[in-house]
Every structure is written in structure tokens, then in C-alpha cells.
Design brief:
- This protein is an alpha/beta fold.
- It contains 22 helices and 11 strands.
- The protein has helices at residues 15-32, 39-43, 77-80, 113-118, 140-151, 169-174, 204-226, 234-250, 257-268, 276-281, 283-293, 328-346, 369-380, 382-385, 408-418, 433-438, 444-450, 477-483, 493-499, 506-509, 524-527, 530-533, and strands at 98-102, 107-110, 130-133, 156-163, 178-181, 315-319, 354-359, 387-393, 422-425, 457-462, 465-470.
- The chain has an 11-stranded mixed β-sheet with strand order 2-1-11-10-9-3-8-7-4-6-5.
- Strand 10 and strand 11 (465-470) form a beta hairpin.
- Helix 7 packs antiparallel against helix 12 and helix 9 runs antiparallel to helix 11 (283-293).
Length: 534
């Protein structure tokens, strides 16, 4: 406690009286101060017993005669920065399912694209779509399955339009979902030209226009994809429009690829004598659709659908693993057909349902300009329909398969991926350093970090903030066994059992000739080594 001394002296004092008063004030101030102690006295406390050394030497105590020398704390500047308070991030809050552990905040990391979109703070996002990028065996597939399955109790369903590896089948069966198998013994068929359910609140004119646009875009995407990405001419566009109109009239608004193929064949034979250009242009689209009717894709998409989309199912998976062994072109055509069929049945805004659309091998939906435009439109309308598109890529170089270098298709593909605001970046190869920095505008420090991430760790970009998350830190054994996608690389159980060492029994390995017999009571013999007994 601070003490203040005020001295009031008369103005008519002589010099001798003023000096005497100053000496008296100084003496009184010294009397009020505590007694001084030396540095040596302050280093040790008072001994418990009288004596110069205290009880330390005589009674085995713990007093040290010298002052303890504590070494100063040494650390790098990076670690010392953590001493500054308020460096732990607050995270996204506690809304939505738990996806992992935020390694920067040492707290659980919750994520839901719909909650992030509804967040009015600066941590909110302007989109519900998610880009997932990572190399093989980086844990991205298991993380997305964790997000999807843990979102089901929150009322978010999911659909996988094309499962090329069959990885989602066991997940759907485990959560009570629906599996639609194409190309197998089931004989299931999907009609990509299905009208789909009527959207609530849409007028007749609006509904007809949306259905027509989707059907035309699907047909044009199939034809352009089959001919190697060559753009159709204006006459070929008119020919496809005409064939679709005739197919709608012939089937009472239930067109199929088989009927469109039949109408193209009639047009190519010269029924339109007044328009020979249209008849000549029908040849190329007709030969493309012939592949679906009579070729290697027959029995899958050419007739009416034999399966129905279960709108109440928590997870709907279209298993196309049987078809992807027929080549990349068949896989791309299949993915366009299944995606178009799924979009027709889930694009109802007033249904008040939130649903993930998981696009495995997302680059396969971007093989032509028409497919890219439809893909871009679908991503833009995701908020309108309450959908979160999850686009999964192994690397940014996957988009190099779209069009030629510096072409409109490739630039549009990179633009579509770059516009997805929510990103989950897993471990990447060192070749991706320039692509991540130039295409996704990631900081150099984050790009270097992405190359060193462990399996299951990822950099999450949600809105304007980034997070370092470990998904596997919260995985249960049930999830780990269910989501494991590299079980084919694991040895068989019988091989593992054969490699395990056989437990040894002491009686089996102990030398019987050394152990004393039951009649021998002398222990000196068997305790002596064999060399000494000779």
C-alpha cells in the first residue's frame, strides 16, 4: 500500500528551522519503513528449528542451502506464439452432425451445409454445395460416408446417382436405404426421359417447360458424348427436337429412348420430303441411340422404368459397378442417364426435404458442353431445391479430360469447380501444388499443409474461414469396418492367423534331460551347467 507524506511549513521559518524540520520528517519516514534484509536472507525461509543450517542436515529435511537455479524456458517462435491468448478458433458451433475434431481448437467440429447457409454471421456460407478433393487412400470417401450417415438423424437424406465401385451399397443396406442395381441379374431399367413428379406450386406451363428442357438436355448430352464431344449442328438439334416431339405424341407423354430412336429412323428415311436437310441430319443421332436399343447398353435405359425412387428412403444408391467395366464411355453415358433420372424425381422445392447428392467421379458429368451447362444449372438451383451436391475429385487434373486445352468446355469445368464455396481438401500429391494455388486460390501455407495431411485429416473451407479437421478421431469401430474401401488389399483372415506366432509352453521347450527326476531331490545337479558337469 502506497504511503504519501505531506509537510506543511510556516513561511517565516529561518534556514536553521527548515533544516531541523526536514531531518525530523526523514527520521519519521525511516521509522515507518520495514527493516531491510539482505539478498542472502531473502533467498531462504526461516528455519523451523534454531541453527545456522535448519533441519535439513540433521533431520533429513528438504531445505537447500543455495538458491535454486531454474533454467529459462526455451522454444521456437512458432510455439511461443501459442502463449498469446485467444488463438483457439471458435469453430462452426454445435449445429449439425459431428464430423470430426477441430485440431486447431481441440474441440468437436460440427458441419451441415444447410446450417452453414442459414448462419447469418460471417461464418456462414453462400452455398450448400461441397467440393471434396484428395488423392487415393486419403480418407475422403470414408469422411463423406460419415457425414451422410450421421446426418440422417438430423433429417437429411442422401442419394448416389451412380456408384461406380459399389462402395455405397453396404452403407445403404446398413442404414435401411434402397439399392438399385443396373447391369446385373435384376434386369432393372431407368428411363432418363421420365417426367418425374409434378413440382408443388408450379403452373402447367412452367412444369411442361422444365420437363422439356431436361429431356432435350439429356438427349443432346448423350449424342455429343458418344461422338467424342463434337458439337451438334443446328440441323441436328432440330432433328432431335422433332423426334422427341413425335415420341411424346406416340407414347402419350411417356417417351423412351427406343421410341426416339424409332422416330429418328423414320425421319432419316425421308418422311420429311420438304426438308431433306433434317432427314440427312438424323443419321448420327440415330446411330448413337442405336447403342442403347441394340448395342452394349441395351436393357438399361431404352424402355420404361421398372423401379421407383423411394422418396422416404434415407439413402438411395444406384449401383453401376457392373457397367463401369465396359469402358469409360459406357460409364459416362450411364452416369448422365442415372443423374437425369434422379434429378427428375428430387427437384421439388416445396417437398421441404433436404438431401445430399453425392457425385462420385464428379468429372464424368462434365464431358460435353451441354452436360456442363446442365451441371452448372443444377449446382445453381441446389439452394432452390434444398439439395447439397457433393462433388468428389481425386485431383484437379481430372478436369483435363474435359475438352481440349483452353477450350470452352475445360474453362467452364474449372469455373464450376472453383465456384463451389465449401471445400474439403484431403492429402494431395506434390503435382497438385500449382493447381490448388492457381485454380482454387489456396494460400501457399495451406497447400504445403495439404501435402502432409494424414489419412482422415482435411482442410475445410466453409465461407470465409478454414479449419483443420480429423474425421477418424471420432469414428467408431462400426463406422470404420463399414466404410473401409481398401479391404481387398488386406490379407485374408486365415493368412493373418498363419502369420501369428504360436504361443510357447514352458514344459514343451524345457530340456527334459536337465530337469530332475521325481526320485532326485538334489537340486545342485540340474542347477549346474552342462559344461561344468563334464
Amino acid at each position: 500500500m502506497t504511503r504519501r507524506t505531506f509537510v506543511v511549513s510556516p513561511a517565516n521559518q529561518t534556514r536553521t528551522e527548515r533544516r531541523a524540520m526536514q531531518r525530523e520528517v526523514a527520521a519519521r519516514m525511516r521509522d515507518g519503513q520495514p527493516a531491510r534484509s539482505s539478498k542472502k536472507d531473502r533467498a531462504l525461509p526461516e528455519p523451523a528449528v534454531p541453527g545456522p543450517f535448519g533441519p535439513g542436515l540433521t533431520e533429513g529435511g528438504y531445505w537447500n542451502l543455495s538458491r535454486p537455479a531454474l533454467p529459462p524456458h526455451q522454444a521456437t517462435s512458432q510455439h511461443l506464439a501459442g502463449i498469446y491468448p485467444f488463438v483457439a478458433d471458435a469453430g462452426l458451433g454445435h449445429r449439425g452432425p459431428i464430423v470430426g475434431v477441430d485440431l486447431n481448437a481441440d474441440a468437436l467440429w460440427h458441419f451441415s451445409p444447410w446450417d452453414a447457409y442459414a448462419d447469418p454471421t460471417d461464418r456462414g456460407s453462400f452455398s450448400t454445395n461441397v467440393l471434396v478433393l484428395g488423392s487415393y487412400r486419403s480418407g475422403k470417401s470414408s469422411t463423406i460416408k460419415t457425414l451422410v450417415t450421421r446426418s440422417i438423424p438430423f433429417g437429411h437424406n442422401a442419394v448416389v446417382p451412380s456408384d461406380p465401385k459399389g462402395e455405397w451399397v453396404v452403407v445403404a443396406e446398413s442404414v435401411g436405404g434402397t439399392v438399385i442395381r443396373l447391369g446385373g441379374p435384376t434386369g432393372a431399367r431407368l428411363n432418363p426421359l421420365d417426367r418425374g413428379p409434378r413440382r408443388t406450386g408450379a403452373s402447367d406451363e412452367q412444369h411442361e417447360q422444365m420437363v422439356r428442357q431436361r429431356r432435350i438436355a439429356t438427349l443432346i448430352s448423350l449424342v455429343e458424348m458418344a461422338v467424342g464431344g463434337v458439337k451438334l449442328t443446328a440441323v441436328e438439334h432440330a432433328c432431335i427436337h422433332l423426334a422427341l416431339e413425335r415420341a411424346i405424341g406416340e407414347t402419350s407423354d411417356e417417351p423412351t429412348l427406343r421410341e426416339v430412336y424409332r422416330q429418328l429412323a423414320r425421319i432419316s428415311t425421308g418422311e420429311l420430303a420438304d426438308e431433306p436437310e433434317v432427314s440427312a441430319a438424323a443419321s448420327q443421332p440415330r446411330f448413337v441411340l442405336r447403342r442403347f436399343v441394340e448395342g452394349d447398353l441395351s436393357g438399361l435405359f431404352e424402355d420404361a422404368s421398372t423401379v421407383q425412387f423411394d422418396d422416404n428412403s434415407p439413402l438411395v444408391v444406384v449401383d453401376t459397378s457392373e457397367l463401369f467395366s465396359r469402358g469409360d464411355l459406357v460409364a459416362q453415358l450411364t452416369q448422365v442417364c442415372t443423374t437425369s433420372w434422379v434429378q427428375a424425381v428430387i427437384s421439388d422445392r416445396n417437398a421441404k426435404r433436404t438431401r445430399y447428392v453425392v457425385r462420385e467421379e464428379g468429372w464424368r458429368d462434365m464431358t460435353s458442353l451441354a452436360a456442363l451447362q446442365m451441371y452448372q444449372q443444377w449446382l445453381k438451383l441446389s439452394r432452390h431445391y434444398g439439395i447439397s451436391n457433393i462433388v468428389i475429385l481425386h485431383k484437379m487434373g481430372d478436369l483435363d479430360a474435359v475438352g481440349d486445352a483452353d477450350s470452352q468446355e475445360r474453362n467452364l469445368a474449372y469455373s464450376i469447380v472453383g465456384d463451389i464455396e465449401n471445400k474439403l481438401i484431403f492429402r494431395v500429391n506434390h503435382q497438385e501444388h500449382a493447381s490448388l494455388r492457381d485454380r482454387l486460390h489456396m494460400p501457399t501455407a495451406h497447400v504445403d499443409m495439404a501435402r502432409q495431411l494424414r489419412k482422415g485429416e482435411f482442410l475445410a473451407y466453409v465461407g470465409q474461414y478454414s479449419y483443420l479437421v480429423d474425421c477418424f478421431a471420432t469414428s467408431t469401430q462400426w463406422e470404420y469396418d463399414l466404410f473401409m474401401t481398401d479391404d481387398a488389399m488386406q490379407p485374408a483372415p486365415e493368412v493373418v492367423a498363419s502369420l501369428e506366432p504360436t504361443p510357447l509352453v514352458v514344459d514343451d521347450v524345457w530340456p527334459n534331460d536337465v530337469w530332475p527326476s521325481e526320485h532326485d531331490t538334489d537340486l545342485a545337479g540340474w542347477l549346474t551347467s552342462e559344461k561344468e558337469t563334464r
